[in-house]
Specification:
six-stranded parallel sheet; Rossmann fold; single chain; 2 domains
Length: 359
């Protein structure tokens, strides 16, 4: 099949990593796969192009100028895909242009949601769903949200994100986090991989670390990722008196080398679909602590700890307990790896999308 992925850009974030991996896997199975970015290429584009996949930017940014529809539909008409697979942030544009271009099949994957959706997003999504054959949610919880918002479509599927386990190996690191950041071996290292944006709520993580340290826990945290809140989070850490224990790593292209160096992986998001970084950390054998939202409970199961959203006190208690019990931490890390291997492989994910395209 000829398959065209459409998304805003190939940034170094969970959704984009999943799209890039899916595109490569489908190409290896003999499909002709391209990626269209409606804003810009992004940092992941070079890797896909090096692997022989086309990445295009047809100049369809913004909604105010209606010429985006002409440009994007002409672009798709020239490619002639059998399937347009749209992703969060590009649904309406991709679906409208695909139908104008005569594309036989349109699939959309919702990777997450914001608790309070802007009215224009609601309007556009409800228009897009009428132009879409299948709406995919990456978790059961997200499917419920999509249905409640009236954008589940005529046919809804749940396909959880999957990862390539060969890329993530317990106990094999190489990031040298402690020496680079000056963190002592005796200090428990808590880490997270996420954009530094409000929905990821690293402020709760910093609050939790502060409370854990106040209770006598020798711990530090490393925030891997970039975003608009970096300065605010650094200010928060200084205000709480833990500035020297909160470290900002920045963007990391090869996160697989960093996960094994963590003692605990923490994900304190306000909302999630199926978190790629949570799956990666668990596949690396790292004990997870995550907020009890979205797809997190289904991913973690009994292989980690769940805490309430906006409850740094619960997070501090969980960190305290895990730091104090190295054996339990190790057992949960091993259980995490096993759980991801059984339930969240990328081959199963690709199988389901491939079948969906051909339906």
């Amino acid at each position: 099949m000829r398959i065209e992925m459409v998304l805003p850009a190939l940034y170094a974030a969970g959704m984009e990593l999943m799209v890039a991996r899916l595109a490569r896997k489908l190409a290896r199975r003999g499909h002709e796969v391209g990626v269209t970015c409606v804003i810009e290429k992004g940092v992941l584009a070079a890797d896909l192009e090096a692997a022989g996949l086309r990445v295009s930017v047809p100049g369809a940014h913004g909604l105010a100028n209606p010429s985006w529809l002409m440009r994007l539909s002409a672009h798709l008409r020239a490619i002639g895909p059998d399937v347009v697979h749209a992703h969060s942030g590009a649904w309406f544009k991709a679906a409208a242009a695909a139908r104008r271009a005569g594309v036989p099949r349109v699939v959309y994957t919702a990777h997450g949601f914001v608790p309070r959706e802007a009215w224009i997003e609601t309007v556009l999504n409800r228009a897009a769903v009428r132009l879409t054959d299948t709406v995919v949610s990456v978790s059961d919880h997200l499917a419920v949200v999509m249905t409640a918002r009236g954008i589940a479509g005529r046919r809804q599927e749940v396909i959880e994100n999957g990862i390539d386990l060969t890329m993530f190996t317990p106990g094999v690191g190489g990031g040298d986090i402690r020496s680079r950041l000056g963190i002592a071996d005796r200090t428990a290292l808590v880490g997270t991989v996420a954009r530094l944006e409000p929905i990821k709520n690293q402020a709760m993580l910093i609050d939790g670390i502060a409370q854990a340290r106040a209770a006598g826990v020798d711990c530090a945290v490393v925030l891997i990722g970039e975003g608009s809140l970096r300065a605010a989070l650094a200010t928060q850490a200084m205000r709480l008196g833990i500035g020297e224990h909160v470290h900002f790593w920045g963007l990391e292209r090869n996160v697989a080398r960093l996960y094994p160096e963590l003692d605990i992986f923490a994900l304190t998001s306000n909302a999630e679909g199926t978190s790629i970084s949570l799956l990666e950390a668990m596949a690396s054998g790292v004990c997870p602590v995550a907020t009890n939202v979205g797809g997190n409970p289904a991913v973690v199961g009994h292989a980690g700890c769940l805490v309430g959203v906006g409850r740094p006190d619960e997070l501090a208690v969980a960190i305290h307990a895990l730091v104090a019990d190295k054996a339990r931490r190790g057992a949960l890390g091993a259980a995490s790896r096993d759980r991801v291997a059984r339930l969240f492989s990328d081959e199963a994910m690709v199988d389901r999308y491939e079948a969906l395209y051909a339906a």
